[in-house]
What does this fold into?
Amino acid sequence: MKRREFIGLIGGAAATWPLAARAQQSAGRVYRVGHLSIPSREQALPFTKAFEEGLRSLGYRIGENVVIEYRFADGEMERLPANAADVVRLGVDIIVATGTNPNTIAAMKATTTIPIVMTSGVDPVSAGLVASLARPGGNLTGLAADTGGEMNGKRFELLKETLPNLSRLGILFNPDTALRTRQTSMGEAARALGLTLVPVEARGLDALEQAFAIMVRERARRRSSCREMLCCSTIAAGLQKWL
It folds into this structure.
C-alpha cells in the first residue's frame, strides 16, 4: 500500500514512526482498510467523508480497489476492543484508529503485525504506544496531537505571553481517557509560570454545561476578571471522543 501517501492523507501534527518506502500497488488488488471510530456513524460522518475523498484523490476507489471496514463504538469505550478484534479477524491490510489513545491501544492489543495508523495520539511515549519518538518500533505509525509535557509548557507560555495577568487556568478533561502523566506534567508547567490550574471533569456531552458552570463559579469566588480563566484544550485527551 502507498503508506507514505496514506499517512499524508490523514493529516496534521507529528509523525511518530519513520515511514517505509512506498510499495507499488498491485494491479487488480483490492485493499481492505479497518477504520475504528469512537463516536457514532452520524457524529463521525464529516470525517469519514473526508477520509474517503482523500483516498479517491490517491486513486483508491471505494468498492473497486479498496474496501473500508468501518466500526463505530457510539461513544461506548468498552466496545473498542471488540471492534478492533473484529477488523483483525477480517484480515485487513491496515487499521486506522481515529480519536484518542484508547482506540489505538485497542488496535495494538488486537494485532502486532497489521500496520496501525493513529490519527491523534496523546503523549505516545508516556502512554506506552511507542518506545520513543525517534525510534518508535512496533507496528504503529501516525500522528500525535500532543507529544508530551514539553508541549504543555509551550502552550502555557503562549497563553501567559498573550494574557500577562493570567493567573487561573481551567482544564477540561475526561477522566476515563485522560492520561494521569499528562495532568502531572501540566501541573508542573503551570506552577513554573505561576499559574493555578482548575481541573474540571466532563465524561460526556451532557456534562459540559455543568463543567463550564463550575469554572464560572471558581472564577467568581476568586474574584478573577473575565479574562483570567481560560479553558485549556485537553480535548485531545478525552472530549474528542464525541467530535
About this structure: The two ends are 29 Å apart (CA to CA). The longest strand covers residues 31-37. Residues 41-57 form the longest helix (17 residues).
